[in-house]
Amino acid sequence: MLSYIAKRLLLILPTLLGVLLVTFAVIQFVPGGPVEQYLAEARHAAGRGGVEGMSYRGDQGVDPRRLQQIKALYGFDKPAHERLLQMLGQFARFDLGQSFFQNKDVWSLIKEKLPVSVSLGLWSFFISYLVAVPLGVAKAVRAGSRFDLVTTLLVLTGYAIPGFVLGVALLVIFGGQLQWFPLRGLTSAHWDDLSWGARVADYLWHITLPVTAMVLGSFATTAMLTKNAFLEEIRKQYVLTARAKGLSERQVLYRHVFRNALIPIVTGFPAAFIGAFFTGSLLIETLFSLDGLGLLSYESVIRRDYPVVLGTLYLFTLIGLLTKLVSDLCYVWVDPRVKFD
């Protein structure tokens, strides 16, 4: 086991390096880099960018010395390989760099946006597991019944509807027409003046619609996986033996079937739990005006804020690789029959 863990940890390094190299190489060929973005914003601020009939023409008309200063500001006065080595050296020290346009380091930006993504992710994660797993067990016990067919239809319908489409419908019906829930944000404008109880109620009031839009689509996968895993275990010989010994159906289900059937669910639990902290939903965050990691990543790509793009990519890839290792190790913890050698 120790040898396997050591090999997996060593494989993380080339995998992480490969992801960064491919992304860095692609960035070099993307038009409209930070220098061009800066020049466009400067011209717009000067009142020339929005004049009718005029269009941005790159660095034409810009003083060469000024252009060189701007390139030096963003580090583009150095060759690509030097910038790559400098970036890798920073990442080795867990220094994610400084944003080009927000005058903050990447760590600070992640910390600012993280609460929104954590709020959405954790609520979606816990609600999905607390509802989908019992639903999957009930469907397996009642396989082929009317309950199984109706719930399957409802779950698959929810899975087929995109989250942002459902979010729009929820906003129009419950936020616009009925006005039961707010249309934007995680808290009200007078949040600081509320008591603790009122703050909790206000937060739950705001989070209901975006979490509902995110969570319905995730029910199907977990519920159907749970159902199929239980059906497979229920048909095995040891279940027939337990029933023949006189055990009740509840004892057979929860003392024998439950542990074996939950192996695929439990092993995916670490990845889903960690992903709840760092997974941002761009469409949901944009729709409900929530400033989270999804919106940060999108804006960074659009504005060519490369330190934010590469810094967040490095952090999330590293966390994803480590979480995958933990998920694999959970197989051994849940099922001792699994041997990696």
Automatic annotation (TrEMBL):
Domain of life: Bacteria
InterPro entries: MetI-like, MetI-like_sf
Keywords: Cell membrane, Membrane, Transmembrane, Transmembrane helix, Transport
CDD domains linked to this entry: TM_PBP2
Location within or outside the cell: Cell membrane
Keyword Nucleotide-binding recorded: no
Parts of the chain that traverse the membrane: 116-137, 149-174, 203-226, 261-288, 308-334
Coiled coil, from the record: none
Pfam entry (one): BPD_transp_1
Its membrane topology: Multi-pass membrane protein
Domain ABC transmembrane type-1 stretches: 114-327
Major localization class: membrane
Assigned protein family: Belongs to the binding-protein-dependent transport system permease family.
This protein's name: ABC transporter permease subunit
Lineage start: Bacteria, Pseudomonadati, Pseudomonadota, Betaproteobacteria, Burkholderiales
